[in-house]
Amino acid sequence: MSNQLIAACRPSATTVEKYQKAGIWRTDTILDDLARWLDRTPDSVAVLALEDRHDVVRLTYREFAKYVTRFAGALHELDVRSGQVVAMQLPNRWQVGPLMLACAKIGAIFAPIMTSIRPRELERVLRRVNAAVCVTVDSWEGFDHSAALAGLTPTLPGLRHRVVLGDRVSADEIDFRAHFEQTAWEQTHADVLGEMSADPDQVAFILFTSGTTGEPKAALHTLNTAHATYMTDSVKIT
């Protein structure tokens, strides 16, 4: 599937108006929500997560927002642009949230992949979405994910960068901590990032089914369709 084809898959103006009128979709996004919480309570805890199963990571809204912008700058530095796909195969780590919102900020499409997926299925998924970047973990649950991804590189000409989160990063891989976490891209790319805003009706996520009854199938979601998933109030569509 080409990036142009994915980017062209957006709801019609009539559909957008219908769901906005019903109160299911909106004109702002989760990035606007983050900006509001940052303004109201910047030093409250936004994320509480385990790091390597024993260290607790606490991020305030101020810190979380900083990482969203920093990660967006890191992706922009890797020449990731609107409509391109950033795949991710990570366990449940705190970096996932900021990375997802960073993709939304620059208009990139976020494609999370389960850590249980192995090379044959991973190659199919990455090829299908034509991922420009894949972020993975060095190893998890006894499996060497970075080595598996490296072995697929010759079959994935569209994959420009392999990014690895962990302690083992080879010379032809990008160290997630060094490039994404420790480099202040929010300062060096402030002008470019300041001009970016998320489109609530652009394809923002590619989510794959489990594949238990066949090959995993890709479902396209916008920020609005994802937001509607979490709505709890009943609404009436006319």
TrEMBL record:
<feature type="domain" description="AMP-dependent synthetase/ligase">
    <location>
        <begin position="35"/>
        <end position="232"/>
    </location>
</feature>
<dbReference type="InterPro" id="IPR000873">
    <property type="entry name" value="AMP-dep_synth/lig_dom"/>
</dbReference>
<dbReference type="Pfam" id="PF00501">
    <property type="entry name" value="AMP-binding"/>
</dbReference>
<protein>
    <submittedName>
        <fullName>AMP-binding protein</fullName>
    </submittedName>
</protein>
<dbReference type="InterPro" id="IPR020845">
    <property type="entry name" value="AMP-binding_CS"/>
</dbReference>
<dbReference type="InterPro" id="IPR042099">
    <property type="entry name" value="ANL_N_sf"/>
</dbReference>
<dbReference type="InterPro" id="IPR050237">
    <property type="entry name" value="ATP-dep_AMP-bd_enzyme"/>
</dbReference>
